[in-house]
Amino acid sequence: MRRYSVFALAREALRHHAGWERAWRSPEPKPRYDVVIVGAGGHGLATAYYLAKNHGVRNVAVLEKGWLGGGNTGRNTTIIRSNYLQPPSAAIFEKARQLYETLSQDLNFNVMFSPRGVLMLAQTEHELRAWKRTWHANRLAGIETEMVSPARIREIVPAINLDGPRYPVLGGLWQARGGTARHDAVAWGYARAASDLGVDIIENCAVTGIDRDAAGVTGVRTTKGAIACGKLCLVVAGSSGVLAEMAGFRLPIESLALQALVSEPVKPAIDCVIMANTVHGYISQSDKGEMVIGGGTDGFNNYTQRGSFQHVEETLRALIETFPMLSRLRMLRQWGGIVDMTGDRSPIIGASPVPGIFVNCGWGTGGFKAIPGSGWACAEMLARGAPGDLAGPFGLDRFTEGRMIDESVAAAVAH
Ligand code: FAD
Ligand code: PYC
């Protein structure tokens, strides 16, 4: 594939952009692959890319029932940070954040990583103590975060109201190298680079059944026919329970909708990401000027991918005390994605009870930021047949051994 560069841009500008190639190939499925990955969200695509790039495993297919990036990857609010509490989470989220720093260069695709800073507000004494604990844990893990005072918060976000009558801002946890990236571009960049390395990405190809014999998995049935495989990795977020059922096992995961919305575009007013977890709202401003806003998950399990008026009202009501300007903005769009929640709010990366089937799921409300680290760790597991250091703690066995990795505070979204 031709490299994207300033010279390519200039060349195409001179010939009316007639020479651009398709960003990724659209092949028909082969009868057999060494590895089949189900789900072309960020995690599935990154897994395929690092399998090919880091481990030389290239006879790989990624099967996607819709269009790539059309699941949670293309529906999220793009917040990237690594301020997690427990050592295994700190390791994988910080690995991901570091990979994001140079991802555009690595993939030769502009993912628009913008380390504009992420601020988690403390609006109760309890939350202040929780963030201080996280800050100390971050320092021990070598992750750069700092506790900031209300006065410093006013400097970072002049538009904020610190003195709300119900929830005054008492301080915050600031990660200066956290930020955002363009979600579609992350999916497209991984897809293009993986395709270039020989990975087959097959869209409009739903997996409808999983075949196994006494020794383990043998292949999948799809809307484009049967495909045999040596290893199968399920990376389908909110559909994880459905795919596990096809394979004959259960996962400790609940699926529910997480919603978000954007306002009409306005001039630049907020140049970092702010999360207000006590009141359940977070906000950043997109390059187009829209306020990108989200709140908590729906209070009941469901598979809808839609927004609801109740959620718009609830989230804005929560945020208006701290951001009074929101009361004067019209909201443009709302939507939902199906998030895959585990009991300890940490992901599952590991072997399943069926030999040859692996799972990478449970990223819940917070997996966009993890995509590069998750792909890296999952590829290592598939190539070796067993998880390495990054994925090791996240196996399914932790639920039977009672070895939870509690990230309910760091998940930072009401659930
Ligand atoms: P997905 O992107 O959902 O990909 C899974 C794919 O599997 C889908 O494309 C689906 O079509 C496919 N699939 C399902 N069933 C089948 C089948 N039978 N056959 C073939 N393909 C199938 N995370 C953050 O870090 N920061 C945020 O700011 C953030 N905000 C969020 C806001 C919202 C509103 C939502 C919904 C999520 C948010 N998240 C955030 C979470 C993040 O989006 C997800 O954790 C992450 O995108 C999951 O990626 P994935 O690749 O695992 O899943
Ligand atoms: O994990 O940072 C996060 C997040 C923000 C909004 C949804 N998830």
Automatic annotation (TrEMBL):
> SUPFAM superfamilies recorded for this chain?
FAD-linked reductases, C-terminal domain, FAD/NAD(P)-binding domain
Major place of residence: cytoplasm
Please state where this protein is localized: Cytoplasm
Q: Name the cofactor(s).
A: FAD; FMN
Q: Matching Pfam families, A to Z?
A: DAO
Q: Does the keyword Glycoprotein apply?
A: no
The cellular component terms of Gene Ontology attached to this UniProt record, alphabetical and capped at eight, are: cytoplasm
| Record's protein name | Sarcosine oxidase subunit beta
What chemistry does it catalyse, as a reaction equation? sarcosine + (6S)-5,6,7,8-tetrahydrofolate + O2 = (6R)-5,10-methylene-5,6,7,8-tetrahydrofolate + glycine + H2O2; sarcosine + O2 + H2O = formaldehyde + glycine + H2O2
- What EC numbers are recorded for this enzyme? 1.5.3.24
Indicate whether Protein transport appears among the record's keywords: no
Which PANTHER family would you find in this protein's record?
FAD-DEPENDENT OXIDOREDUCTASE DOMAIN-CONTAINING PROTEIN 1, SARCOSINE DEHYDROGENASE-RELATED
Q: Which GO terms describe its biological process?
A: tetrahydrofolate metabolic process
Entry keyword set: Cytoplasm, FAD, Flavoprotein, FMN, Nucleotide-binding, Oxidoreductase
Which InterPro entries does the record associate with it? FAD-dep_OxRdtase, FAD/NAD-bd_sf, Rhodanese-like_dom, SoxB
